[in-house]
Specification:
The complex is a heterodimer.
Chain A: H1 4-22, H2 29-45, H3 47-79, E1 84-91, E2 94-102, E3 108-112, E4 125-126, E5 131-138, E6 141-149, E7 153-155, E8 173-177
Antiparallel strand pairs in A: 1-2, 2-5, 3-6, 4-5, 6-7, 6-8
Helix pairs in contact in A: 1-3, 2-3
Chain B: H1 2-21, H2 32-47, H3 53-64, H4 69-90, H5 96-108, H6 112-122, H7 128-139, H8 144-156, H9 161-171
The chains are: A alpha+beta, B mainly alpha.
């Protein structure tokens, strides 16, 4: 079972890095002088609309650079132990979906609508740091699933939406695989 | 003579439907009584043109989780009712995926009018993902009205499937920041 404090610490770590990336980027005096000179120059020759447009472009570039950092952070968030549903094309109309769970256990399996809820069908493999994972090719559609830890404990995927229709009183998650 | 032909035809159709309702995956996973009752539901579903696969999977889920037979039958029956309602809202040409998503949306609180409206708005764009996202948002704690507003707004803008999934990630608790 993936302890809640693991999720919290991942989030706290991601937020700390994100906060660092959100801080203003210090520009050298030379760059700042050139930008201000360009703004003054455009302001005399190009009119307000063009001026703002260029400045917005500069701000957009800075924002894009920050956003790229954010993508790295949130990508890392997925890698450090949550369910990863970034399907890649697997051929035959299927997409590769990676199921990931961090837990201390001797065995973990995923059961769901894609394997007849058979606990022996899709075991996860452990890697370092108690991270268990498996890649399953799935056709587009909506699937219910859950993890079986040590053959007895049912564990919902903490990184995926929970199923509303939990008919049997045990935790269930859902994944929707898009067609395109 | 005509009566005999009609009777034979009826018996033939019933046997075809009963054969459709039998699924070898249920053998060994359900006791005989539960299996017979589930197969009755499957036969009813086949008669209405509903997909059998989600019903079989629901029964197998119950079996895997060790649920008692009556509870498994009740869950399969409830899903059959939801699929049937989804079919009313989406029409007879809806795919199995769309019916499954429609059933989830209906269980989450969508009305048939809502389901019909999203179908009309999406046209050929497919409704499986938007309806699934609606159900997931409600399951995540959003009100039906708020989830519906978000999903129908994106549908009107012509959002694609990935955009609907992004919307869900942004809005669900613990999802990515906007």
């Amino acid at each position: 079972m993936m302890p809640e404090h693991d999720v919290d610490s991942d989030q706290a770590f991601a937020e700390r890095v994100a906060a660092h990336l959100r801080r203003p980027v210090p520009l050298s005096d030379r760059v700042e002088r050139e930008v201000m000179a360009r703004i003054r120059s455009e302001g005399l020759n190009g009119g307000t609309a063009v001026n703002l447009g260029r400045w917005r472009g500069l701000r957009s570039a800075i924002a894009l650079a920050l956003a790229a950092g954010m993508v790295v952070v949130f990508g890392l968030g997925v890698l450090v132990g949550r369910h990863s549903s970034t399907p890649a094309i697997a051929g035959d109309g299927k997409r590769s979906v990676e199921f990931v769970l961090r837990t201390s256990a001797s065995s973990v399996a995923v059961v769901g609508d894609f394997n007849n809820w058979d606990p022996d069908a899709t075991p996860l493999r452990p890697s370092s740091d108690s991270l268990w994972s498996v890649v399953v090719p799935l056709r587009p559609g909506r699937y219910h699933y859950t993890f079986v830890v040590d053959g007895t404990r049912w564990r919902r995927d903490p990184g995926a939406p929970r199923a509303l229709e939990d008919d049997f009183g045990t935790p269930t998650s859902v994944i929707t695989v898009a067609q395109r | 003579m005509h009566r005999l032909t009609a009777l034979l035809l009826m018996l033939f159709l019933q046997s075809v439907q009963a054969a459709k309702a039998q699924d070898p995956r249920l053998a060994g996973r359900l006791d005989s009584v539960t299996r017979a009752q589930v197969e009755e539901v499957l036969a009813t579903a086949a008669g209405r043109g509903l997909p059998a696969e989600p019903l079989v999977q629901k029964a197998l889920e119950g079996a895997s989780k060790g649920a008692p037979g009556p509870r498994i039958v009740a869950a399969v029956e409830a899903l059959q009712v939801d699929l049937s309602r989804a079919q009313q809202g989406l029409g007879p040409k809806a795919s199995a995926d769309e019916l499954v998503a429609g059933a989830a949306a209906i269980r989450a609180g969508a009305t048939l009018q809502m389901v019909d409206r999203i179908r009309r708005t999406r046209g050929d764009g497919g409704v499986a993902v938007p309806l699934a996202v609606f159900a997931d948002l409600v399951a995540g704690g959003m009100t039906v009205d708020a989830a519906w507003h978000s999903v129908s707004e994106l549908a009107q803008k012509g959002g694609d499937e990935e955009q609907f999934l992004d919307l869900r990630e942004r809005l669900r608790p613990g999802g990515a920041s906007p």
